[in-house]
Amino acid sequence: MLVALLSAPGAAAQQPKADGETRFENGLSHLREGRVEMAIEELKAAVKADPKSPYFQKGLGVAWGRMADRCRDAKCRESALKEAVEAARKAVSLNPYYIDARNDLGTALLRQGKREEGRKELLAAFNDPTNPVPALTARNLGQSYLEDRNFGDALNWFQTSIGRDKSYSDAWLGVADALSAQGRVDEAIRQLESALRTLPEDVAMLGALGEAYYRAGRFDEARPRLQTVAAKDPSGVAGRRAVELLKNFPQ
């Protein structure tokens, strides 16, 4: 998380700044602007200048994770994730109480296919009382179980996430996905309706509710919601999905 990195003590402004701090801040700037390759080079230089900084290691791990997202083949993705895991693991070894880095490590391990090892790290992060983002950690655990089609555990963790932060839309969407995957569509609809009372301006939630109505055959309720999402988010993921669904409505 860039916000967490920017607030880290190692990133604090100093006069004059050490070379490692300057390269670190340059790397974060490149990440914010989507220049991932340049970010990696700057963050590598920061780590070289100060290999014992957990913040520099975390930043490098985040950058390698972004690189994995951009890879077009399995070999590239595998290599990038290996680097992400290594950097996150170093950050945790340098500071075992750096919970953001442990979250990164768990997520990178999951993406690498090391499912139980990744969940073990996320569970350790969730149980740490200093975890600044327990809702995110719980949601990531839920998502990992959803991807593995363990819908019961997925639902439990998504609900735990909502218990920590009722405004976390990804957790609400996860609950609906887990319920729908079990054929509990009416329950999923009720959960999305409840979520929208909490987050009335969330277009992703409105789109999910519109799709749930659509799949339940409740077309009169689905259509206006999907039309609203398509109008509000024409170039976004939710808007594009709404447009596709609207094309398939029965005449």
Largest sheet: none
* CATH class placement of the domain at 133-189: Mainly Alpha
- Share in β-strands: under 5%
Low-confidence stretches: 6-16
Structural class: mainly alpha
- Gyration radius from CA atoms, angstroms: 20 Å
CATH level-two architecture of the domain at 133-189: Alpha Horseshoe
Can you tell me the CATH topology of the domain at 133-189?
Answer: Serine Threonine Protein Phosphatase 5, Tetratricopeptide repeat
CATH superfamily of the domain at 133-189: Tetratricopeptide repeat domain
Mean pLDDT, as a whole number?
92
N-to-C SSE string, H for helix and E for strand: HHHHHHHHHHHHHH
Any key phrases for this structure?
251 residues, mainly alpha, Serine Threonine Protein Phosphatase 5, Tetratricopeptide repeat, 76% helix
What would you note in describing this structure?
There is one protein chain. This protein has 251 residues and is mainly alpha-helical. Among the domains are: 133-189, Serine Threonine Protein Phosphatase 5, Tetratricopeptide repeat (Alpha Horseshoe); 201-251, no CATH class. Helix content is 76%, strand content 0%. The chain has 14 helices and no strands. The chain has helices at residues 2-6, 19-32, 36-49, 54-70, 74-94, 99-111, 115-127, 134-147, 151-164, 169-181, 185-198, 203-215, 219-232, 237-247. The protein starts with a helix and ends with a helix. The model is unreliable at 6-16 (pLDDT under 50).
